[in-house]
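Protein modeling request. Please complete all fields; requests missing the sequence field cannot be processed.
Requester role: graduate student
Desired output: 3D structure, token encoding
Chains: 1
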Amino acid sequence: MSTNQPRQTKAQRREAARLKAKELREAQARRAHRNMIARRSFIGVGGAAAVGGLGYLTYLAVNRNEKDFPAAGKGLATEKANQSGVPKQVLADASWTYGDGSQLDTVAASAPVLDIYFDYSCSHCAQFEGTHTQEINQLLSDKKITLALHPCKILKQQWTSVVMNAMGVVLDEAPAQSLSFHGAAFEILSQVLQSKDQSLMTVENLVAAATKVSVPSEVSAKFKSAVDSDKYKNWVELGDKAFADRDLQGTPTVFFKGEQVDLSKLQSPTSLTELVTGSTPTAQPTEQSSQQPAQQSTEQPAEQPAEQQGADEGAEQQG
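Delivered output (319 residues):
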């Protein structure tokens, strides 16, 4: 069948193809814009409902420019967390402080802040704690520092949640013994690493450790209930959020006067004191600490406690 429409010239066909391509590009751009809006809406809703894990950390990574906390080492959080599932003395970034001796929730006047980021399942954190507990206690006694402890669960081990639930009870109900219990919890991990006996990581051993540092029995008796119900779950998640928000990579991470400290310079039992006072080194690194001078834990410990093989299995063993 013939048509009365004249045949398009080559130039006209080329122009028509150009216009069609332009329309396709514009349509594609509109679809991409709609998809972007939809993704942002989904992330906003999903981020509010997330409770940790890779998805939540990915959400935090996408929103790195929206900081909820002071930069690492750049000052203490100024407000309490003030939410259920978080000990009442804990600050908005999940940390807690000692400044007047070992008294919880105090700040030593005019004393610089020593920030320590840690995970209760971190072997290097246990080593750091064992090396420096005595001098930290002395520095606090001399009011030369304000100690800010920043917990997190970057290793994703169930033991960290177990310890933080017990620690939450102590912070809320036996604050005078909280710093000693913090050290006692790390002593259990040190014993596990030395003996390779994973069965030591139990609520019962946390109760025994609490007894050794004078936590009242009526307080430690609440550990099991707190662990079983994951009473301080919100605190664990808050610590992870603060850690990720501050772009930190491993534990332990230490800041003093706002500057990150090279862990290779903190090998001896007097190195923190030398850092704080500006004195010259008086002790050589111990054999144990010199073997791993500047390591941080960013992956799971080589020896995974039996309780950490699954949430359900762990709950039965911890009970």
